[in-house]
Amino acid sequence: MPAILINTVSFLAGLVAMEGVAWAMHRYIMHGPLWVWHKSHHEPGRKGPELNDLFAIVFAGIAIALFWAGAQPGLRPLWWLAVGVTAYGVLYAMVHDGLVHRRFPFPIKADRGYLLRLVRAHHLHHVTHTREGGVSFGFLVAEDPERLMRQLQAQRADRP
């Protein structure tokens, strides 16, 4: 198989797989044992750096390890996998921190279409201020906000 095809597939695999990895990390780690870091992101009125930002360092460490491994003879696809992971990180920062939370000036407004759906889905995630419950744990793939509202209502109805 040509190297360009292997490298392209590796890049795309890193980019696409990260949404699943991020979803699982968010659902089971951030809203689980590492809630102590992530809860800073769910506190209203926060400004500036958050303890939650440490997760970016963790993911950067994974990308750095993949870059290092991919620099070894015969392991070049891992380098391209790292490029895909890094590209996801850049998209995450732009969409989540820039577009959704406005942590830095961002030139695009989510006033229609998929971007509006993504912002609404993430804001519904922030309706829950505890580690339990919640909806919409993905970052770039947004579920239907109407469906998420029904899930939140069902969760509230199930509470004693």
Defining traits:
single chain; 160 residues; mainly alpha; 66% helix
- The overall pLDDT average reads 94
Q: CA-to-CA gap between the ends?
A: 58 Å
Biggest β-sheet description? none
Low-confidence stretches: none
Q: What count of helical segments does DSSP give? A: 6
H/E element order: HHHHHH
Rg, alpha carbons: 17 Å
Beta-strand proportion? under 5%
**Count of distinct strands:** 0
The percent range for helix content is: 55-70%
InterPro entries: BETA-OHASE-like (IPR045019)
Family: Belongs to the sterol desaturase family.
Protein name: Beta-carotene hydroxylase
Transmembrane segments: 6-30, 51-71, 77-95
What does this structure look like?
Belongs to the sterol desaturase family. Keywords: Carotenoid biosynthesis, Membrane, Oxidoreductase, Transmembrane, Transmembrane helix. The chain crosses the membrane at residues 6-30, 51-71, 77-95. This is Beta-carotene hydroxylase. By secondary structure, the protein is an all-alpha fold. The protein has one domain (3-158). Helix content is 66%, strand content 0%. The chain starts with a helix and ends with a helix.
